[in-house]
Design a protein that fits this description.
Elements lengths: L1 E2 L11 E12 L2 E13 L4 E5 L6 H8 L7 E10 L2 E2 L5 H10 L1 E4 L3 H4 L6 H11 L8 H11 L5 H5 L8 H13 L5 E5 L7 H18 L2 E5 L3 H7 L2 E6 L2 E7 H6 L4 H8 L39 H5 L5 E4 L2 E3 L11
Parallel strand pairs: 4-9, 4-10, 7-8, 8-9
Antiparallel strand pairs: 1-12, 2-3, 2-5, 5-6, 10-11, 11-13, 12-13
This protein binds adenosine-5'-triphosphate, iron/sulfur cluster and magnesium ion (MG).
Length: 335
Amino acid sequence: MKREAPAPAGRPPLLRVAGLSVGVKKGKNLIHAVRDIGFHIDPGEILGMAGESGCGKSLTALALAGLLPGGTARTAGAVFLRGRNLCAMTDRELRRVRGREIALIFQEPALSLNPLIKIGKQIAESLELQGEGDKAAIPDRVFALMDKLGMEHPQRLAQCYPHQLSGGACQRALIALAVIGKPKLLIADEPVTALDTTTQSQILDLLRSINREWGTGILFISHDLGLISRLCNRVLVMYAGRIVETGPAGAVFGHPAHAYTKDLLGAIPSWERKGTPLLNIPGKVPALEAYGPGCPFAPRCAKAGARCRAAFPEAVRLEPRRRVYCFAPELEQDA
Ligand SMILES: Nc1ncnc2c1ncn2[C@@H]1O[C@H](COP(=O)(O)OP(=O)(O)OP(=O)(O)O)[C@@H](O)[C@H]1O
Ligand code: SF4
Ligand SMILES: [Mg+2]
């Protein structure tokens, strides 16, 4: 077991987040909902971000893209895209980066599409914004893109308004808009949560093919560990605004080192455990106002001691790409 070492020098990762904290206003106070988190995404990698509701996933995603809403603010840290500090950019520069290099998709595609404009026109306008100069070629490019992204009957769908489409078709349309410029990074915040399981699988396939074909790195945010294990190379587990564990998906899901990851995995049904009762994590997630300096999982952890309540543990590196933030991690050989 080694203490975390600095990342080796060389080609910068696609995305590097360093010491990021996000505060939210509660009355006169600013309370930290995301606390000193750091992680990276390599080019072409799919990183899953998991954690229960309210742990800070969406605020992290919005902070990466410079889109934090009013009443919230980045209070510390920096975000580097291919070595460039996005936090030092002007609004104009950031808008350019969002248009060309970073794209976002959210849980409710219908809310992100313009309800008054037909789908085909929305895609055509985005193509124009991306610099497609040949106007005569745009309709064919729209249909080709819709076809490529698995939208059946593109000519007919192009004539529809968002409310006339199913949830899955809406999400595909939103993905089409997001990836028109072949972004280097796609941030997908709960993109399939509102969909039925068949459509979920189709959207996961679509994200996988975008990743393979264009080398787009993806931050896939979900509270569903099953979806993350199917799609992602690496996973990052958050709890109460902190990263508590990160590593290759197979290693983290196969041998969770943090007590929270272990409990979270125990709480989902699986074929192997069919017929056995679900494990409920005793206690509840602390309210924002109750976040303290120690390990946020201490009130629910059977192994919690005085030092756990006093300070948040430093990263412990278990393998080159595997970190756990715990004073007494579960090691594979202990299992
Ligand atoms: N605009 C806001 N103003 C005030 N508080 C906010 C705001 N946005 C988020 N929060 C609070 O910050 C915390 C983290 O919220 P966030 O939306 O990032 O959680 P999440 O992990 O995405 O949850 P979910 O899985 O439900 O989407 C929550 O306690 C939430 O209530
Ligand atoms: S740091 Fe302490 S309280 Fe937190 S998970 Fe590890 S043992 Fe439990
Ligand atoms: Mg969210």
